[in-house]
Here is the input.
Amino acid sequence: NLNLNVNIDTNTHITLRAYDKAGNYRDYTFRAKMIADHLDIPEKSVPYNGASTDLFFVSFGWSPVQDAISYELEIITPNQNRNNFNVNGLNTTVNIAALGEGEGLYSWNIRAVDSLGNKGPATLNTNFTVDQTQPKITSIQLQDPSPESQGRITQGITRFIISFSEAMNVNKIPSLELRPIEGTQGQAIPLQVLSFFENTLTAQAELEAPSPNNQSLQGFVRVHAMNGEDLATNSLAPIDSGISLFEIYTGPHFEAKFFSNPVDNEDLIFVIKGFISDGGRATEIPDAPSVVLIDSRNREVALDPLRLTKESFAVNFNLSLVNNNNFTMVITGEDKYGNTNSRSFFITIADIFPGPPQQILTSLLKIDIPSGSTTKKQEILVIPATALAVSAYPKELELIQPLDSSPQLLPLLKESTVTGSLLSSANSRIASSQSKLGLYVHNGSKWRHMGVARVKQNAFQAKSKYLGPMALMIDNQAPKIVGQPRQIGQKLEFEVAENGSGIDFNKSAFIFRGKRNPLNNQDNGYLDVKLNEVGHEFGEADGQLELVDLAGNKSLSKNINIALQGTPQAQIYVYPNPARQTLNYEIRTNFIPKAAEMYIYDSAGDRVYSESLDMNTMREKYQWPLINTSGDIVHRGVYFLRIKLVEETRTLKKTMKVVVLN
Here is the structure.
């Protein structure tokens, strides 16, 4: 038996010499490979193959190997440079930035080492990515089922195919919506996400035809995306304005006006015109719409429209066609973009032959309409509360008593006095909340608070500038903030949940440093406040939002943190410094500049590179690929990074010293 200890696997020659008793001998030589003591291959735990991180400090871990006293970690950089680290434990953290190659695809393997220095076999290479670049949306394509849409978002279902600059975290689905641009009315439309795979997302929006009760979003809009992130948890960058702009067009919205023949006032001419929306511009109607009259006995009569212009038509008929009684006109048509819509007009004889306003009396209600409340003499029909068909009452309000009312909304130029009797069941329910009892009128889409209803014994009295479906309701819920407030410059925006009596803007305010700042109401359902004096220091401070509704309910928010923006401030961070291949730099400000520029100067003071920057938030990250204006890699040496920020009438400049090790 022959025992030899070797530290590593070795190729060798072994010679054996044999002697006989007379002293003769012979040599026997052969080749052999000496194999070191065997060590198992460790099992890796982190980072796993294909992992991605936005951190330069990366943790590595593996399972223990019998007889091993240490481990050799090998990291292979994007440029295939190999770096070895001796580790005594089962995990370690390495600063990848110190390897000098920044972001990119890295590989790693691990092998065990015993007490004699023998090294076991290494694991296969495992890849991971260091990524600090924000993902971007690179394209948005529309799939509209209507060939006539001509690139617009029209009625029905429109699909959005959204492509990203890199693979995304599919477990973090972005929130997508269509928002109006400045000057466009309508509420934002959320997009429903249908699928999300790697760098492609499919979503859809379903739009209905416009109507007086459905003021859908119209005109130019932008796609907004929030909360998305890539595999390295970098947040999604704002969408480029050049690819996010689209136009919504869901018309037509039909309007009708009638004229009486001066000779025979029962001979009527109706002019019908198509619009993109209620109050919007006129739109072309290629084919004559369908016009049908429905009389009080539900008999239908079709009329033949006569074209007047590209947008308008006329129909003529005599009231005898509907038995000189109330009737309904139904108009159905299609615009040049393939949108279809139907609208009904209920016409009463009082509309055609209006009489003077009068005091309206029912068994439980009296409405005093002052002279001059309407622009024309008009009959007002009031029907019992049990016969009214209106939308559901809001859950934020407690219904006390529906009232006999007009089925159609009628704006008045002067306030009318509404007086009525309270039912016995209503009296008992309002005993403790009389001050919060209000008169509400349904405006076609929601219940609107007209004013406080004063109660005396078994009767109530209130004022209203509208007639329509009416009810007495109590609002016991105070308004409150929904979600997180957002700060844009010196303006704060709040989304407020208040579907009851509505915000009392004379009593509500944002309280900051002892000063009450008045609130403004935005068309998109948000409240905002502009803070003109928030101090001159760079930092943060707290304020509170006090909300009071028209019923007197009050709420006071928790402290709301805001950025102080009296004097423009900026901070610049650069990394890595010294830099190889790429220099990352981050700009943090307390304002959003109108313009931003970066300049690179060498140690002699000569400008070698410059670039305009897009700053859409108060914290942005950028990169300089260490090139000059000609696109050539700059030489090793000392350089100066200068940032110039323009804010209204002032310009802010910051300079940082950097070292390049190319």
Q: What stands out?
A: The CA atoms of residues 174 and 228 lie 4 Å apart. Residues 360-470 form one domain. The longest strand covers residues 410-421.
